[in-house]
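Take a record.
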Amino acid sequence: MQNVINNCSEKMKKSVASLQADYAQLRTGRASAALFDKIKVEYYGAETPLSQVASISVPEARMVVIQPWDKTVLPAIEKAIQKSELGLNPNNDGKLIRVNFPALTAERRKELAKQAKATAEQSRVAVRNIRRDAMEELKKMQKAGDISEDQQKDGETKIQKLTDSAIADINKVAETKEKEIMEI
């Protein structure tokens, strides 16, 4: 029974961590190096993550500076950023790339907030599915005679507490991200 509860707890923690990782990719009005994590650059014939061909820094709140270790990859980095879904326009000065983050329009902010809410809801659904699977596992164990009915009820109570805690964490993360998106 403890195995089922521990497994459930791990999966729920991963759901919350996944939400945080998804939110790191979501553009707000502020510059963030994490936005460039999924960008791949054509480098010597291979798709290489941007972070492996250049250093990414945030010198100002609305600017990211990308400095490649090999200057020949500058055009490929510029092209990869333009092709990405970030909607950013990189400035190449021959040595490094500066990416300015324009202030978000009110309409775009609302759109991003809606997207953030949808992502949070997906995480809540994932947590509820984990709860359902764990509850079914406990029922199977009880039917097989591995645990008593009291142990099953106790396990279900613990799983529900884990679920409530994970949902609260998701709500807190979502609320923080929404505030970050909506600030000017």
Remarks:
- The first strand starts at residue 40 and ends at 43.
- The chain has a mean pLDDT of 89.
- The two ends are 49 Å apart (CA to CA).
